[in-house]
Write a structure and sequence with these properties.
Order of helices and strands: HHHHHHEHHHE
Strand order of the largest sheet: 1-2
Radius of gyration: 27 Å
Keywords: Membrane, Transmembrane, Transmembrane helix
Shape: elongated
Strand content: under 5%
Low-confidence stretches: 2-10, 14-18
Number of strands: 2
Number of domains: 3
C-alpha cells in the first residue's frame, strides 16, 4: 500500500476522531449545563402543584381572592385599581413562575399560582401526618397528650396561644390545630400556620 493511501486513511481517521471529540465535548457541555432554578421548581420541590390553566374553578377562586387585595403591594403581584380577570392572573403567574428562585415574589406565586391546599393537606406533601382534629372521640389522643405536655414550657409556641389553660390541655391544643389546619395557601398566615402545624399538630409520616 502506498504512503499516500496510508496518509489518507490516517487523515480520515484523525478527522473522525477530532469530529467525535468535538461532538462528545458538545454533548458533555449540554449535560453539565446547570438547570435554571426558578420559583416554579422551588415550589414543586416544596410539595406544591402548579395550577393548570384549564382548572377554571380554582382560577375563579384565586381571582376573587386576589381582587380583595389587589391594592396591597405586599400581596398582589402588581397594584391594581380595577379588578383583574382569570386570564390576567394566569398571565402574571406564567411570568412570575419563571423568575429566579430567590426572587422576592416567591410567596406571591405560592399564593396565587398553585393548586389551593390547606395546611393539613400540605403536611402530607412534606412527610408529615396531621393528627386528627375531630371534635369527638379520642383519635390520636396519646400523640396530643405528648405534645400538650411539652407545649406550656416551650419557647416556640403558636401565635396567640400562650398556654393551654387548666382544663384538658390536649383538647385545647387539638382545637387550635384545627384552626391552623384549615388555612389555605392563598390566605394570610399560611406559612406561619404551616410551621406551627409541623411542630404542634403533626407527627412524622
Amino acid at each position: 500500500m502506498s504512503k499516500f493511501v496510508l496518509y489518507s486513511m490516517a487523515g480520515v481517521g484523525g478527522a473522525a476522531g477530532i469530529g467525535g471529540g468535538i461532538y462528545l465535548l458538545h454533548e458533555n457541555s449540554k449535560a453539565s449545563k446547570p438547570e435554571k432554578r426558578t420559583i416554579k421548581s422551588k415550589l414543586i420541590k416544596a410539595g406544591f402543584k402548579v395550577l393548570d390553566t384549564s382548572d377554571s374553578q380554582h382560577w375563579t377562586t384565586l381571582k376573587n381572592e386576589y381582587n380583595k387585595v389587589k391594592q396591597e403591594s405586599t400581596k398582589a403581584f402588581e397594584t391594581h385599581t380595577q379588578d383583574i380577570n382569570e386570564e390576567k392572573l394566569k398571565s402574571l403567574c406564567q411570568s412570575y413562575l419563571e423568575k429566579d428562585e430567590e426572587d422576592l415574589s416567591y410567596g406571591k406565586v405560592k399564593r396565587w399560582c398553585m393548586v389551593p391546599v390547606t395546611v393539613s393537606n400540605h403536611l402530607e406533601s412534606i412527610g408529615r401526618k396531621a393528627l386528627s382534629t375531630a371534635n369527638s372521640g379520642d383519635t390520636d389522643k396519646s400523640h396530643w397528650e405528648t405534645l400538650a405536655t411539652k407545649y406550656d414550657n416551650s419557647s416556640d409556641k403558636i401565635a396567640s396561644l400562650d398556654n393551654l389553660g387548666s382544663g384538658q390541655k390536649w383538647e385545647a391544643l387539638r382545637n387550635k390545630c384545627k384552626d391552623l389546619g384549615d388555612k389555605k395557601n392563598y390566605e394570610d398566615e399560611f406559612d406561619a400556620n404551616l410551621s406551627a402545624s409541623v411542630t404542634w399538630c403533626s407527627i412524622s409520616a
